[in-house]
Amino acid sequence: MASESFDDRDGFIWYNGKMEPWNDVRPHVLSHGLHYASSVFEGERAYEGEIFKLREHTERLFLSAHTLGMEMPYTIEEIDQACIETMKANNIVNGYIRPVAWRGSEMMAISAQQTQTHVAIAAWPWPAYFTPEARLQGISIKITDWRRPAPESAPVFAKAAGLYMICTMSKHAAEAEGFQDALMLDYRGQIAECTGANIFFTKDGVIHTPKPDCFLDGITRQTVLELARKRGYEIIERAIMPEELPEFEEVFITGTAVEVTPISKIDDRAFIVGDITKNLMNDYDSVVRRTAAAA
């Protein structure tokens, strides 16, 4: 599957209210979203034919669009149903669903007052972002030079395409050095997140995680915090400086794609894959599959 291009596949994409053959969907090259990053999206996972926390994802898509001043031409309920229909049309049991909304080609200038908001939803099989072996062993990450911007500099609480440019650049640079992801600091020099996942640290049985005041408070992050509280773990959301890394024992990241994945190395510093991480990995795996089974 890795060699299969995403613009040449069998299947269907929900496009502006209709289920279209995958290969027939062609947004115009002069779409405002392509040139000026006026685009928002979501990443969702289906487990056993059930999309995990679909409504929360759809609500965030609408919040992101509203933040960018984009008027969604459909209701939340319609997008929920379209995600389900797209998953079924592509025979997805365990997979990934990608809704995206963008300004079209009605205007080609920074000003986009006359553009229409277009919406598409694609779905494809995606059993796991990292292999089971990688998840158990932990992955390696490298601190990147690019930093998450201040809330006054960018719409940091929207899942907006433009915010991911530095993520791609950071991840590419980390991969070129043999790492699997990059760890981003924020504009103050505090630890923020990885390129597509929130991050957690443990010390003396306590979980520490950056306060999401300039990046997304991920839906998976919120789920894992709930699971940690159910286990009775103490959680501290606070500013964390990179100088504190030697004090931590376990590190893990959370996200729709990565689920709960341990970190074994940050730059040249090693971390254990300990009981807290393993417990939350198992708890998350159980809840997503239990939710699917109950649907």
Would you summarize the structure shown here?
Helices cover 28% and strands 29% of the residues. With 295 residues, the protein is of the alpha+beta class. Helix 2 crosses helix 3.
Verbal overview:
The structure is a single chain. By secondary structure, this protein is an alpha+beta fold. It has 2 domains: 12-125, 2-Layer Sandwich (D-amino Acid Aminotransferase, Chain A, domain 1), CATH 3.30.470.10; 132-294, D-amino Acid Aminotransferase, subunit A, domain 2 (D-amino Acid Aminotransferase, Chain A, domain 2, Alpha-Beta Barrel), CATH 3.20.10.10. It is 28% helix and 29% strand. It has 7 helices and 16 strands. It has helices at 32-36, 54-67, 76-89, 132-137, 165-176, 219-230, 275-294, and strands spanning 12-15, 18-21, 39-41, 44-47, 50-51, 95-103, 117-125, 139-148, 181-186, 191-194, 198-203, 206-210, 234-238, 250-255, 259-266, 269-270. Strands 8, 9, 10, 11, 12, 13, 14, 15 and 16 form a 9-stranded mixed beta sheet that branches. Strands 1, 2, 3, 4, 5, 6 and 7 form a 7-stranded antiparallel beta sheet that branches. A hairpin with a 2-residue loop joins strand 11 (198-203) and strand 12 (206-210). The chain is globular. The model has no long low-confidence stretch (mean pLDDT 95).
